[in-house]
Amino acid sequence: MKTAVILGAGGLGCPAALALAEDAPLARLVLVDDDRVERSNLARQILFRDADVGRPKAEAAADRLRKLVPGVQLEPRVARFAPQTAAELLRGGDVLLDGTDDFETRFAANDAACALGIPLVHGAALAWTGQLLTVLPERGSCLRCLFEGPPPPGALPTCAEAGVASPLCGVVGAAMAGEAARLLRGGQPLALGRLHQWDALRDRERDVPVPRDPRCPACGLASRAAVRHP
């Protein structure tokens, strides 16, 4: 059995985890989140109920999945994903799904996946827009090839400031699970080398090509050589 590590048991991580759990015994799920359930989460974070408010998200999500999908193998990790914790949290992982909502964690996940050679499925949603990018180390581009690094603090609104359309979270989370399932089965991901975007307000989708940057500090030739020969 393979292992899928899901970062963030929130608006994207909840539907992604449910979809992959329903695909059992395809994968064992590791749910990583250091946050707690808030009442404002309940509209879009579909694994939580009123009684879960105040509980660690990873544990509450795991308990709900066990009830919905008996026999699913789960490991909740109440921990923050960071460069210092990445190797331990990703140990044994076959695919990483990043549904977090802060840029520092997104780029930490991208860098760790590239360094450790673990496929990454990146998803994000803000207001009415969503995006999906799949990273296969040494086979395609990564998040830094597109954005280089996190934006300056305050340059973009947060989910708390701009909100997020609840149905869009389900769309992006399900797409993340689909990409992960294809990777775990040895198939070809759909969002490799391209950023798939949703405009839910106008009901539009588009693909933005993401060419590989050989000088990328995460997935470029020099960075991979440094990982192999520190």
Describe this protein's structure:
The structure is a single chain. This protein is an alpha/beta fold and 230 residues long. The protein has one domain (2-226): NAD(P)-binding Rossmann-like Domain (Rossmann fold, 3-Layer(aba) Sandwich). The chain is 33% helix and 20% strand. The chain is built from eight helices and eight strands, in the order E-H-E-H-E-H-E-H-E-E-H-H-H-E-E-H. Strands 3-2-1-4-5-6-7-8 form an eight-stranded mixed beta sheet, with helices on both faces. The longest helix has 19 residues, at 166-184. The chain is globular, with a radius of gyration of 17 Å.
Number of domains: 1
The tally of helices reads: 8
Mean pLDDT: 91
Task: Strand order, main sheet: write it out.
Answer: 3-2-1-4-5-6-7-8
Q: In sequence order, what are the helices and strands, one letter per element?
A: EHEHEHEHEEHHHEEH
Please report the total strand number as a whole number: 8
Percent of sequence in beta strands: 15-25%
Name the helicity range: 25-40%
CATH architectural designation:
3-Layer(aba) Sandwich
Shape from CA axes? globular
CATH homologous superfamily heading: NAD(P)-binding Rossmann-like Domain
Structural class: alpha/beta
CATH topology: Rossmann fold
Outline of the structure:
With 230 residues, the protein is α/β, with parallel strands linked by helices. It has eight helices and eight strands, in the order βαβαβαβαββαααββα.
